[in-house]
Amino acid sequence: MQFFVNLGRDTLNWLRGVGGASIMLFQALVGKPQPLKMFPLVMRQLYVVGVQSMLIILISGLFIGMVLGLQGYTILVDFGAEQALGPMVALSLLRELGPVVTALLFAGRAGSALTAEIGLMRATEQLSSLEMMAVDPLRRVVAPRFWAGFISMPLLAFMFSAVGIYGGYFVGVQWLGVDEGAFWSVMQSSVDWQHDVMNGFIKSVVFAVVVTWIALYKGYTAAPTSPGISAATTQTVVYSSLAVLGLDFVLTALMFG
Amino acid sequence: MNSRKIELMVGVFMAVAIAALVFLAMQVANNTDATRGATYTLSAKFDNIGGLKVRSPVKVGGVVIGRVSRIYLDAEYLEPVVEMRISVDYNRLPETSSVSILTSGLLGEQYVGLEPGFVDDFVEMLQDGDYIVNTNSALVLENLIGQFLFSQGND
């Protein structure tokens, strides 16, 4: 009996959370567009969310590409198929690792920061002060951060894939001696712009919305105490990672299944 | 941090992203695909298409001229029909041409090989929607082994 009570309570809480998050996003984004006010705010957030995440994305992309090159080579060379290293590296980066690892790193690097920042604004009553001054904190604080995450994550995913492919090229061709012409030409003949690059782009747009949304909602509804903000930050990283990995399976099944 | 520095850094960020996108477009993906531009459709009936898939290439002497766009079973005769989209750059294929389903390498993917036929006064060029009559089906390994064993038994 107690089990059903708990299950029902959890379901209702979850539904309440989803509804609250949807209302928050709707109120933040839908309304009279104010491009002149919005542009500098989005610019500043692009710097915080996008530019400052660039270094970790580029370095992780390079190393993941290099590891793919190394691992792929040792397996493919057994079959005498090391020319297939190019498509292996490029397809795994463009279809899977680029969007997914970027989203996970983004959740850890930028999502947690967004949650902590907004949670602290709530705790120090900055959001209430904004409301007192008749400034809507959803439009002023939440919306620019959402757009910045929405814009920057797909771009970061492109950078990740490009740098990763270069890392795979570096290890495979420069170090292990795969033929350079074969590496690029076999890659070009098997990577399709629409099917591989654009589907990866769609994935990273979906992940961008989900990760930024979770981070903003968790920060906006964080309990205004030190443990509350700490818990909200943890939940942001955990929930967005789980959501990204789960959605990735669904999207992969839809796109490439 | 003043806003000019922020704008500069965001500009650099955008430039790197665009550079990555251009790299992916030019160096990684194939944009020179034969089926990018205008195409026309040809069909061919086979007995067996083996492992041919939609988007498999159609080649003449190794050069890709189009791709398989659709594979379906003829409702009346239950024969597999392969529909191909061929680039209009190659619209001078005579109707005496033959198509066969071939395999690139020992374990490679299967593709449609088109062998252009002879041309004389009575031969017309293939138009959009035409059927190629002269077809050779895919080699199926099991049938091949079966034939080999059968011919061994005759000796």
What does this 3D model show about the protein?
The complex is a heterodimer of chains A (about 260) and B (about 160). Chain A has helices at about 1-30, 35-75, 85-125, 125-130, 135-175, 180-190, 195-220, 225-255. Chain A is built from eight helices and no strands. The model of chain A has no long low-confidence stretch (mean pLDDT about 90). Chain A is elongated, with a radius of gyration of 21 Å. The relative contact order of chain A is 0.16. With about 260 residues, chain A is mainly alpha-helical. With about 160 residues, chain B is an alpha/beta fold. Chain B folds into two domains: about 1-30; about 35-145, no CATH class. Helices cover about 25% and strands about 30% of the residues of chain B. Chain B has helices spanning about 5-30, 140-155, and strands at about 40-45, 55-60, 65-75, 80-85, 100-105, 110-115, 130, 135. An eight-stranded mixed beta sheet of chain B has the order 7-1-4-3-2-6-5-8, with no helix packed on it. In chain B, a hairpin with a 6-residue loop joins β5 (about 100-105) and β6.
